[in-house]
Amino acid sequence: MTEAVRVHQAEERLQTILKAVVVGARSGDPASRPGGEDLTEAFAASGALCPPYDPEALCLLMEHSNSLRQNVDAYATNIDGFGHRFEPAIDFDADDADQRVADCIYLERVAARDRGELDVTATLEPTAEEVAARRRELQQLARIERARLESFFDFCCFDHSFVDLRRRTRQDLEVCGNAFWEVLRDARGEVARLVYVPSFTVRLLPLDRSPTEVEDRIRVSPVSLDTVTVRHRLRRYVQIQGTDRVFFKSFGDPRVVSRRTGQVFDSAESLTEADASDGAATELLHFAIHSPRSPYGVPRWVGTLLSVLGSRQMEEVNFLYFENKSVPPLALLVSGGRLSEASVPRIERFIEENLKGKANFHKVLILEAEGAGAGDQARAKIELRPLTDAQQQDALFQVYDERNIDKVGSAFRLPKLLRGESKDFNRATAESALRFAEDQVFQPERDEFDFLMNRRLLADMGIRFWRFRSQTPVTRDPERMTEMVEKLVRVGVLTPEEGRALAGDIFNREFRKIGDDWTKRPITLTLAGIQTGVEDLRARSAKGTITDDARALVRLRGELEAEEERLATSRLDLARRYLQSEPERIEVPAVEFDAWFQGDAAP
Predict the structure, then answer these.
(1) Considering 390, 411, 442, which residue would you say is the last residue of a domain?
(2) I want to staple 217 with a disulfide (CB 3.0 to 4.6 A). Which of 259, 459, 546, 593 is the partner?
(3) Are 229 and 213 spatial neighbours (Cβ–Cβ below 8 Å)?
(4) How far is 531 from 527, CA to CA, in rounded Å?
(5) Which helix (H) or strand (E) element contains residue 554?
(6) Do 21 and 35 contact (CB within 8 A), yes or no?
(7) 584: how many CB neighbours lie within 10 A of its CB?
(8) Do residues 284 and 293 lie in contact, with contact meaning Cβ atoms separated by under 8 Å?
């Protein structure tokens, strides 16, 4: 198959895609669908809702576009490509840890009293002993939960990392407007694995008519969850891939659903009795870019659909020029006669066969003529005439293509620097563009994803002491950051310990921890000679003695300045008296004087 045939087939496929997206037609191989029906008919037979845009056509558009890939990759890299960390709900190493634990005990007792589990006359405020005991208990539980979290996210995917799962999810979300995770549970009913599901193979079923009682976990205190029962209308999903049709239920759905038919059963035993080869459907977690007119998500670039298609057509026009150009670079004209009978068919064959392709790029058209007279008057005039003015000199529609690329980029709200265009940028404009994208585009998307992880997945896992937080890129200037840390430590805003923690980000390494007390105090107090610990300093501040110490330091500084002024006056007086005194004559023997200059003796 030649390149021209492949390009022609691609052009026909693009026209099919355009009809599928704009007109609403659907394409597919009926032989590969369940029962041999069309893909649309297969989903419709399963009771699925029709999406506003064909997901498979949107995926093909991304593959053929010259502007979508870089925008989608920029989203996936900057939002999901830097991993995650776990933030503690209570930092037990912080100074206010006891107060936070006391607040948790108080809130839990209030919730228990509201539920009727605690007498209304019971004391809500915990004692110091209760706080200390509860703190030790929570520290042990937090350590176990942290190990459990790290193990889960290290092995939650079968053949790729969790970061790669997030990047695939982001790509599906931005290309199709929808993304799906299959959630697998172990024998105890706990979340064990997360599986990526291609979004173009899944369709949504209508919401159930009757609501279902679902257990939901709400936060009572920073480290405790309570289970409540709510009634919620749920949805099922269907996936058709090849000849397989599989049904799923929503994440958190407690019902037993058939994975082959989507029917709801009262129990797993009744499902087995109905069909021994059938099994319970697994859960599906749905991500979507909200659309006000459809339960499906809609990609944010769909408004620039014609720009994407137009740029592709422009690329094909420029490419096909090398295979189908029809204007030769030169023409050899013969005048003073008439064309021979064989010239006309030769011209036709030359245009049809000898002008297309790179090998015929410099072919010359030769025309033969016969003289009109006899003898010397039968002379034919031969002339070479260039035809380059009629040829295409450069690619067509370049301005149109640039405008289309800018339109697609504006739909994603990304600066040109993040789309791979580095011209017309200096350091200041580049930093401003990156800061804008980070604050206005990437961080809100990370916050939305983190909320879903904490509210749905981690809450279902019973995680109480840790919060999922997506990491951001380090966009700080090391030199500027070093200067800032130095100034803040010098004036006492940061302690040396906090400065070393920030220095770890600058040098991308973890510094050895210093446990001395001076690292926990402002450097100004250390240089002033105050060697008390942080707790002693806080106790002295509560007693009011630190104010007296500060006044004493101010007094001491005044006395030192007065003493320095007195010494300077004394030095000036001595110098003045020395200049006003008579010079003293000293007689030195000549031998000793010569020895001074020869280095044998010191003066």
Answers:
(1) 390
(2) 459
(3) yes
(4) 9
(5) helix 545-580
(6) no
(7) 5
(8) no
Q: For residues 103 and 576, which has the higher predicted lDDT (pLDDT)?
A: 103
Reduced to 3 states (helix: H, G, I; strand: E, B; else coil), residue 186 is coil
Q: Is the dihedral of CA 490, 492, 493, 497 positive or negative?
A: positive
In terms of C-beta density within 10 A (0-12 exposed, 13-18 middle, 19 or more buried), how is residue 309 classed?
A: buried
**Per residue, what are the HEC states of 5-34?**
HHHHHHHHHHHHHHHHHHHCCCCCCHHHCH
E-strand ranges in 387-490 read 466-470
Task: Tell me the residue range of the domain where 35 lies.
Answer: 1-324+396-474
Cα–Cα dist 602/513, whole Å: 53
- Number of domains observed in the structure of the chain: 3
Q: Residue for token digits 């035993």?
A: 269
Token output for 202:
């899944």
* Closest to 258 measured CA to CA, from 58, 371, 250, 268: 268
402 and 362 part of one domain: no
Last residue of a domain, one of 543, 562, 587: 543
SS3 at position 90: coil
Give the neighbor-by-neighbor strand order of the sheet with 178-185: 191-197, 178-185, 283-288, 244-250, 235-241, 202-207
Task: Examine the domain organization and report whether 334 and 280 are in the same domain.
Answer: no
The two structure tokens encoding residue 88:
């503690």
C-alpha–C-alpha distance, residues 5 and 285, integer Å: 42
Give yes or no for a contact between 135 and 97, defined as CB atoms under 8 angstroms apart: yes
Q: How confident is the model at residue 5 (pLDDT cuts 50, 70, 90)?
A: low
DSSP structural state of residue 201: G
Contact between 7 and 316 under an 8 Å Cβ cutoff? The reply is yes
pLDDT tens digits, one per residue of 226-237: 889 999 999 999
Please name the residue ranges forming H helices in 156-255: 162-176
Residue 435: alpha-carbon gap to chain centroid: 14
User: In terms of pTM, does the model score above 0.70?
Assistant: yes
Structure confidence at residue 132 (pLDDT): 92
Residue 558, token pair as written in the block: 């005044």
Task: Please tell me whether residues 140 and 257 are part of one structural domain.
Answer: yes
The pLDDT tens digits for 342-385 are 776 777 677 667 666 666 665 666 666 666 555 545 566 656 67
Residue at 22 is within a domain: yes
**Strand duo 256-257 + 264-265: pairing:** antiparallel
